[in-house]
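> call design_seq(struct)
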């Protein structure tokens, strides 16, 4: 059993892990931040081979939002795998 397994065992059952907020438009266009939900455990955390090897969270590209709302484009951060060193995207490492 590793360090991470020990840490996960300390998280109480049914804990709220995150309060989730979002803006309904870019702030520059009058967007307001609002609470949209929470990520909450349904019981206890368990480690599993599936969780380690097959469970992935998909992050949707903002291009789909901009396609629906082209006026958002100038207020949307741009990230590129080719600009990895200059990018501040938390998902590129």
């Amino acid at each position: 059993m590793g360090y991470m397994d020990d840490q996960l065992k300390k998280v109480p059952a049914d804990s709220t892990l995150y309060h989730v907020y979002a803006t309904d438009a870019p702030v520059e266009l009058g967007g307001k931040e609002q609470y949209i939900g929470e990520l909450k455990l349904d019981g206890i955390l368990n480690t599993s081979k599936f969780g380690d090897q097959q469970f992935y969270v998909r992050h949707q590209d903002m291009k789909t939002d901009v396609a629906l709302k082209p006026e958002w484009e100038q207020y949307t951060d741009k990230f590129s795998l080719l600009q990895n060193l200059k990018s501040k995207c938390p998902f590129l490492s």
